[in-house]
Design goal:
28 strands; globular; twelve-stranded mixed β-sheet; alpha+beta; Alpha-Beta Plaits; single chain; 22% strand
Length: 641
């Protein structure tokens, strides 16, 4: 007999599966562990004397994950005959698992306060990869020979088994701390602890710390220095809900092994005053450097600080650095509510990946490439590969490099659209959809090809005032009244006309009078609205295309009428939601499509997504499961165009 444990997960990356395998191998239990698109299925030899102990270890040590759902168990007749094998063909950048964090704070450990702590299943391992195959000699650690203890760990079963870049204080990476007065180095437990103590005290004294983490450079500072790019780092897990209003799913997500960035509601009144809004991006410390810094800050009574992603040239009062090359990935940002979860943007955790049936081509987009390997397509940073023999190359429009003599370009919206179809494997169905990232684009898949039915209309900021004046009779008076009653906004529109490139939501934010003149600013303003319904913004269509002038003129009219900015911002997304629904339903009826697809980063907006959910209740839309809904999914879609 076999005891079967089935864990539901729609995410196909194998780090949770490998973590289970590591535990099973440690107990020397024969098992078959496989993963498909919906489940991880573990069948154990049920008569093994340590099975119960193994199951308890899985329950205790398995890291929490965004993507783990329900589980169930049952018996079957197929008895496993072998130990399961690890499948760590490529590394990911993940948070630290419970085992590695425990080791980092164990005074008797060789990795006490060692910020490069990780194992074969967790940590910032991908940051140090320089090429494939994934081996130590193809990483930044090639210049550091592992000590005897680390070598033994790599050969023995457990979480360090086959860990390519295993290291500790005895064979690891020295780190330096530099300020204007002096420079100090850390290469053992005591000196590392002192270094993080000094860094925490510097932040407490209102200094800025530039730190090269295992995920790249970040600058840390106190929250009285917040700006539009600031992210709250909630360093005290037990106090998170004192400062943020979170649903259970959000709290669990912050502490998950993926360690995403979430857009959350702020409870702390002092923070609200500093932010100027009641929402903020937040995360929990994810890798060794950030975790150790957070530990020392907690000792000083600090529950949270702020940080930004940056580069080595960022100005700071104190710098923590080391001499290994690091190739950072953009952080995972997640959309989450009680019913839905999807990746809004970012490459970390989604890439690298080994997915879909192999094709003799390469797809290139946003510094990432897809290429054939071992029967599937491997997706990863283009700088990790040298050359490969294929029949053709599909390259995102705008990339000027030549990759193949048989090369063609593809468009972002078409690639994002087809990536959703590929993930759900519905190539045999007709689909309509919309891609929304600044400019909406409506698409149709007829079972063979992707067609742009309503292509995006590029926003022309140089003609914004004239377009509104010429919209209809009397529209010129609208501009005159704007100049008289809100001269600061009118002046900004004049300046906007001189810029070479202007995004549509930059103009929208200016008309709303927001400091953050971007889509992010409009989104944050919309989150202030707590009512049940907004007002209708004009989503006029001209020549089968979205009319920017009518939309902006409508905002100006409401602005002059004294409608609050938060209601206007909320209504913008609500109106877009109705506009998208009307077009999609019309297209679906005309084409006899059976599926609706949503893609593009702007759908990671609570106001817009809620409206789309309500409007599409009878035909729920499909979105990406394993990849971001934004531009990062283009490299996936490029395989199928």
């Amino acid at each position: 007999m076999a005891f079967v444990l089935e864990i539901e997960t729609p995410f196909t990356q194998k780090y949770i599966k490998n973590y289970i395998i590591s535990i099973v191998r440690k107990f020397n239990i024969n098992a078959t562990i496989r993963q498909d698109k919906l489940n991880i299925v573990c069948a154990f030899a049920s008569k093994h004397e340590k099975l119960q102990e193994c199951l308890e270890a899985i329950a205790q040590d398995l890291p929490a994950s965004l993507f783990l759902k329900s589980s169930k168990s049952y018996d079957n007749d197929q008895v496993p005959n072998n130990l399961p094998e690890l499948e760590n063909e490529y590394p990911l950048n993940l948070g630290l698992c419970p085992s590695c964090q425990k080791e980092m704070f164990d005074v008797s450990s060789r990795r006490y306060y060692y910020p490069f702590s990780s194992c074969s299943c967790c940590g910032g391992n991908h940051s140090f990869v320089t090429s494939y195959p994934y081996e130590r000699q193809n990483s930044s650690f090639k210049f550091l020979a592992p000590c005897t203890n680390c070598q033994e760990e790599q050969l023995n079963v457990g979480f360090k088994e086959n860990h390519k870049i295993n290291s500790c204080h005895d064979c690891g990476v020295p780190v330096r701390l530099v300020n204007k007065q002096k420079e100090r180095y850390a290469n053992d437990a005591g000196s590392f602890r002192t270094m993080f103590e000094i860094s925490a005290k510097a932040i407490n004294d209102n200094k800025k710390l530039l730190m090269k983490t295992t995920f790249g450079y970040r600058i840390f500072y106190k929250t009285d220095k917040l700006n539009n790019d600031s992210i709250l780092l909630m360093i005290n897990a037990s106090k998170i809900t004192d400062h943020l209003s979170l649903i259970t799913e959000e709290y669990n997500a912050l502490l998950s092994i993926e360690r995403p960035i979430l857009n959350v509601t702020v409870k702390n009144e002092e923070l609200k005053k500093i932010l100027g809004v009641n929402t903020s991006y937040a995360k929990y410390p994810d890798e060794g450097f950030s975790i150790l810094l957070g530990t020392e800050l907690q000792k000083l009574g600090i529950d949270y600080i702020a940080y930004e992603e940056c580069d080595e040239n960022c100005e700071a009062d104190i710098i923590m650095d080391y001499d290994l090359e690091v190739r950072p990935q953009s952080d995972m940002r997640v959309f989450l509510n009680k019913d839905d979860l999807f990746i809004a943007e970012g490459k970390r955790v989604s890439f690298p990946s080994h997915n879909f049936k192999e094709k003799s081509l390469v797809s290139v987009a946003h510094d990432y490439v897809a290429l054939p390997q071992d029967g599937k397509m491997l997706f990863d940073s283009i700088e990790n590969f040298k050359s490969i023999s294929v029949h053709k190359a599909n390259v995102l429009e705008g990339i000027e490099d030549k990759f193949h003599k048989n090369q063609k370009t593809f468009l972002q919206d078409e690639a994002s659209f087809i990536s959703v179809i590929a993930e759900h494997n519905i190539f045999d169905k007709r689909c309509v959809g919309v891609y929304f990232d600044e400019e909406p684009s409506f698409l149709y898949y007829d079972g063979k090809n992707v067609l742009r039915i309503v292509p995006p209309k590029e926003f022309d900021g140089s003609k914004i005032i004239q377009d509104i004046k010429n919209l209809r009779e009397g529209s010129d008076r609208l501009i005159e009244n704007l100049g008289k009653n809100v001269p600061e906004i009118y002046t900004k529109l004049l300046i906007l006309q001189e810029k070479k490139s202007v995004k549509f939501f930059e103009a929208v934010a200016i008309l709303l009078g927001l400091k953050d003149e971007s889509m992010r600013g409009v989104t944050k303003e919309a989150m202030k609205f707590v009512g049940k319904g907004g007002i209708q913004i004009d989503t006029h269509v001209k020549d089968n295309r979205f009319e920017h002038g009518a939309f902006l003129a409508s905002i100006i009219s409401y602005q002059l009428a004294g409608v609050s900015t938060s209601i206007l911002a909320y209504s913008i997304f609500e109106s877009f939601g109705d506009y998208f629904n009307d077009i999609l339903q019309e297209l679906k009826a005309k084409t006899k499509a059976t599926e609706i697809v949503l893609c593009g980063t702007h759908f990671a907006n609570q106001s817009l997504f809620s409206r789309m959910q309500r409007n599409l209740k009878m035909s729920p839309p499909l979105m990406n499961n394993n990849y971001p809904i934004g531009k990062e999914n283009a490299v996936v879609g490029g395989v199928f165009l």
